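Pilot study result, target chain (131 residues):
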Amino acid sequence: MTIEIDHTSLSVSDYAAAKTFYAAALKPLRVAIMMEFPASMTGNVDVCGLGADGKPFLWLADAGKTTPRIHVAFRAETRAQVDEFYKAAIAAGGADNGGPGLRPLHHPDYYAAFVLDADGHNIEVVCHKPE
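Predicted structure:
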């Protein structure tokens, strides 16, 4: 099994400027803004996903003037692996940031769990396959 990073997120202090920068800088690689969700939908901050070939893989989050946090999502082969990651990460001292479950905001089969590490980085494991 190959372990892949599914996507990553950057907390940015100037959301509009970051969207403009990344869209322009990555355009030669066929990367464009594919999705946007306002804070009213995320419950927290405005976010946008940049990607290519139908899949966003770089997310920008409007964090304002806060300490930067990194979000890294690892791709799992099964939902059981997502569940196992969550249990192991919590047992290892991680803090809950969203237990295993479907996140249909992204797509109907998006099954993920989120844990904060000791530095506050958001670590996710996601399975895109149906059950």
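One observation from the pilot: The beta strands are 5-12, 32-37, 47-52, 55-62, 70-75, 95-96, 101-102, 111-116, 122-127. A full batch analysis is planned for the follow-on phase.
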